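INFO  loader      accepted 1 record
INFO  loader      residues=336
INFO  predictor   begin
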Amino acid sequence: MADAARSWVGRTGAAALFCAAVLAVPALFGSFAQYFALNVLLLMLLALSFNLLFGMTGLLSFGHAAFYAAGAYATALLLRAGAPLFPAVIAGAVCAAALAAVVGAFCVRHTRVYFSMLTLAFGMFVYAIVWKWTDVTGGDDGLVGIPRRGLGLPGPFDVNLAPLRNYYWFAAVLVLVSAGLLHRLSRSPLGLALRAIRENAERAEFSGIRVRRTIFLAFVVAGAFAGLAGALLAPLEQTVAPTAAHWTKSAEPVMAALIGGPFSFAGPIVGAVVYLGLKELIVRFTEYWLLVFGLVLLGIVLAFRSGLLGAVGALWSRRSSRPAPGPSVAPRKDAA
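INFO  predictor   done
INFO  writer      dumping tokens
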């Protein structure tokens, strides 16, 4: 009981420190650090939504960027039409959830490699639409000139988000709240049902869990949060390109989850920081950064099969399970 309480206090303290560090970035650093931190936060949210399917349910999606792009393009179109920022961002997440419901209706009928291939096919289908539908999406040029307006809230709450600092706090709060909701979901009965499906779908079905419906619900929720990440990207970059829907974008949350550890909630968070941090560091030193970056990521994934947090957890378990040395007792001489 005491160990559980200490563990809870440690996790809560780490989460509070992380939130404080995120919100303190504009007060401590300049515009580049704010821009970089926002990119890390958006990848973190994208990876957390992906891990709802991968780490929690055991389903590997190669088309997660489709929902990311749906949120980005929907928000961009609304902002260019004059909509306030906050309703536009929420509408982008809703559009992504609607797309996830359509795609999920087909994908959840299959598992394992068939599920992965179907998500890849739908993802590239969305990419083809974005690329070819020039009148709406701008084609290969994308959408440019996306404005950052006010929040769209009444009275003094209608904050101007044109300055990067103001937009950083808005986006950071949304991402942190979303991460909290996903954490709560992972501890809910739905999260337990998803873990049961991951371990053995047939036994989960026999125990009364409606497997297909549960996976469909998780698919839609994951799509909605991926769409929210994309919706926050559009005002940050003030442009959206078709690459947001490409399969290479879908690989980023996969790598973040694998680096950090898919079986820990904080794994994708750590993975997002390491992934973008290494990328930014390597780009500064060599023009062959893609080759070096790929080799480094390959080394991390092969060396830490359960991710960085999984390796740390295993090391901590071994140390804590090691018996403490007892007091040394001098041998007693028998009386003659």
